[in-house]
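Page 37, top half.
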Amino acid sequence: MKIAAKIATVVFALSISACTALAAQASVVPDGTSVPVQLQDNLFSGVQTEGQVIHFKTTADVTVPDRGVVIPQGSDVTAKVLCSHKAGMVGQPGKLSFAPESAKLANGTDISFRHDEFILRGGDNRVGAVVLTCIAWPCFCINGGNGKAHAGQTFTFVTGPADAPGQTVASN
């Protein structure tokens, strides 16, 4: 009986500790806080794969009143590829989309981001390909452009629960 009571006490203490850590995270960086980030690698539709991790760094200190800097400039931020389709024939544009995942706080804990979907679309050449195909048959081979973003491009992620409904952000 004493062992069961000790186990229950340990489980209760761990539960309280986990709840306290989650509450501390929420109070350190309020939901809805904007975090400016810079892409660290080049991205191309059809090259990146679904689920692949994308790396960013914060471009400025993120501060919260009465707490000071909570996310220092240069902090690691990650996102994940949601879909990646290369440009296709007959002018079909490529598409790459990703959503923010997490960042490290100054105290070493992770914070999550709202699940906004960032979409990178390539050039749409469908009309030109169809018109030219009517004139000269081989023009159906004209491809659309790939969705892409280059290292150094900036985005703004917004803190919040990962399961919170986000928005779609088109970017080229």
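Page 37, bottom half:
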Amino acid sequence: MPTDSTQINTDHRFPEKELCHKIIGCLFAAHNKYGSGHREIIYDRAFQEELEQAKISFIAKPKITLHSVTNGKRIGFFVPDYLINDKVLVELKALPPHKMIEAGRQLLEYLKISKYELGYAVNFAEKTLKPCRYIHTNDRKQFICDL
């Protein structure tokens, strides 16, 4: 089927679309069951149960390598709450809303110096769950070319 050259391919704007829909579904399922007001560990366990029930592959508390933007060498690591399908990082929080800005900013900075392109920061303390998606694609990371 011929394609019109004026059509915009939006798939690159939403990487891992199907996987992300499943992740968000698991986040909302956990929030709907437990509401807001619990400690972070409760949401962590609830989300993990939802991932398992949905048969989504994940690693809890993985050690993610961080690279120098100058030469690509390992400069450290960080430990997000989840790495899902070796593609999406997820950080769960139960914080006052004004503290989530820093959590999101930190996740974005980690995406910039790791091989991962996509992450979610999620605050279960709010009455309405609002997962925040962060993207920093590898084509914007010079060190990836050096690995």
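Margin note: The domain at 16-146 is CATH 3.90.1570 (tt1808, chain A).
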